[in-house]
Amino acid sequence: MAQAPVELLQRVPLFADFDRGDLERLARSFKERTFQSGSTVAGEGKSGPGDYFGEIALIDDGARSATVTADSDLRCYGLTSWEFRPLVESNASIAWKLMETMAKRLRAAQR
C-alpha cells in the first residue's frame, strides 16, 4: 500500500508545523484506502477500529461530528490512533509539535 504524500499531510492543520523528516515518518504510517461513489467514509457519532476521519480523533478517539459520503470514487489515506500513538510516544519532536498545535487551538477557542 502507498504511503500518504507529504504534501497532503502539510495541509492538515494538526501536522502543518511538522518538519519534513517528521512528516515523512508520519507518512509511512498511513495506509491508502479506496471507496466507491455513494460509500460512507465516516459516520456521524461513530468511532471504532480503523474508521477514523479527522485528525483530532487520532488523539482523543472521540465520536464523529459528521457523516462523510463519497460523491465519486475516492482514494484517501488513513491512520489509526493505535498506529499514531506509538509514533508520537517514540518521537519527541512530533509530540512537542502536537502539544504546540493543541495549545494554539485551545488559546484560540478561549478567545
List the keywords.
single chain, 111 residues, alpha+beta, two-stranded antiparallel ribbon, two-stranded antiparallel sheet
Question: Can you summarize this structure?
Answer:
By secondary structure, the chain is α+β, with helices and mostly antiparallel strands.
**Could you say which structural class the secondary elements and strand pairing correspond to?**
alpha+beta
The residue fraction in helices comes out at 25-40%
Shape: globular
* Sequence stretches where pLDDT stays below 50 over 5 or more residues: none
Estimate the mean pLDDT confidence.
81
Largest sheet: 2 strands, antiparallel
Please compute the radius of gyration using only Cα atoms: 14 Å
How many angstroms does the end-to-end distance come to?
Answer: 42 Å
The largest beta-sheet arranges its strands as 1-4
Portion in beta strands: 5-15%
How many separate helices? 5
* Topology as a string of helices (H) and strands (E): HHEEHEEHH
Number of strands: 4
Any chance you could write out the topology, listing elements then pairs?
Elements: H1 6-9, H2 20-27, E1 31-35, E2 40-42, H3 57-60, E3 68-69, E4 74-78, H4 81-89, H5 92-110
How would you characterize the overall build of this protein?
This protein has five helices and four strands, in the order H-H-E-E-H-E-E-H-H. The relative contact order is 0.19. The termini are far apart. The mean pLDDT is 81. The strands form two sheets. It has a two-stranded antiparallel sheet. With 111 residues, the protein is of the alpha+beta class. 40% of the residues lie in helices and 14% in strands. The radius of gyration is 14 Å and the shape is globular.
